[in-house]
């Protein structure tokens, strides 16, 4: 009888010990998972797919090296197939840092827990513009010439190759689907080339990207006429996953805000980065409302 009680007692003690060990193991595993989520050994950094993806990744190897050295982390650069894919990846928590356009950031913010922390600065300004261009050979030199024509735009979620070109045209009395036919080509460089080659009579794209294409010799300014320029647009924001470790987030901010290397900044057509916050993009939200855009069409 005593033997049985002792055996039962021993068994109970062993089971209790096993449960305790399993509890410790589970606790340690959960802690490791949390640590890896909030302070991962590798950071996935997404770059905006506004030009050729392979070129974007190649041009930003300097940024990857800078972040690796500044943060002591492995850096993986990614370029999604389009803006919508980038927004979706952010909403699923697959991106730690992401370089959005202003509109794509506003759209991503509706689905994701992310925060902007820096935006590029060019010529001392944290803003830029988009332009409407026309095919010179076709005589597309002013707004009136666009009536009834095909207008090339970039990605549907692009700020300077969709939102502000449409807003600029609307302010001139030209409405998409009524006064012109809009075609989406995905990237700014594709828009410029389509207009130059006569595949579209007009188009809208970022002025800094257009100037870069002219500088590279990709676009001949004699073949493309600048018809109009938009109002000022807040610059492209760098965003960060909000649930990262606060100390890591601060290190990331510092790595960008103190960046002065011209070779690293060149692909961004920037002189540096300045601190930005969500409210700086309220003008983008207002422009979307003016055009009656449905945010849901971009973020399904």
Automatic annotation (TrEMBL):
Gene3D superfamilies: Periplasmic binding protein-like II (3.40.190.10). This is Phosphate/phosphite/phosphonate ABC transporter substrate-binding protein. InterPro entries: PhnD. GO terms for biological process: transmembrane transport. It comes from the Bacteria. Pfam families: Phosphonate-bd (PF12974). Belongs to the phosphate/phosphite/phosphonate binding protein family. GO terms for cellular component: ATP-binding cassette (ABC) transporter complex. Residues 1-30 form the signal peptide. Keywords: Signal.
